[in-house]
Amino acid sequence: MILIGMFDSPFVRRVAVSMNLLGMPFEHRNWSVGRDFELIRQFNSLGRVPTLVQPDGEALIESAAILDFLDECAGPARALLPSAGKDRREALRLMAIAIGAAEKGVSQLYETVFRPPEKRHRPWTERCVAQMHAALTELERAWQARSGEWLIGQRMTQADVTATCVYTFLSDALAITRTATYPGLAALAARCEALPEFRASKAEWFPPGEGR
To answer: What is the pTM of this model?
Structure first.
């Protein structure tokens, strides 16, 4: 399989980490939605990442859909998302909160990078900041309330993968710890980032812009 997208994106990276954890080899195309837009559109007409191209040429888009496909391939015993019940609902809830935080972070970056200062809408940016930190606070609360070594139960789930990829992205791109601290998330991220499956897909952060 071919995974298209840059690893400094939390959406691309959570797919790469999941494939590493599940032992699914892939070829990585380190393509940018700015610089390599037309290359990406050869596989995905939207020109978005992540895109996962299967051996038969079929392409899947959107990280949530790709992760669902990977879990189906892995089977219920190895899947990173719990198969049913309260644990599954809680994992989906935490993943949605983490992705929401990432999306609000991306909105802040785009407002700064792509709009000239005189056209930036400060109330919108402030709202994104508030939503991002509210989401991170909820993830921190969930960590503090956990009963095991991971966010859910006694083994790593997709909730841990997604929360870590998002926390690392926001730390690198927006230096979130300058304005708030999240000791639980920081501990989770440090534990996960030390694993080879995470290290294999860690990339230096570069801000979006022309040529990127």
So the answer is: 0.94
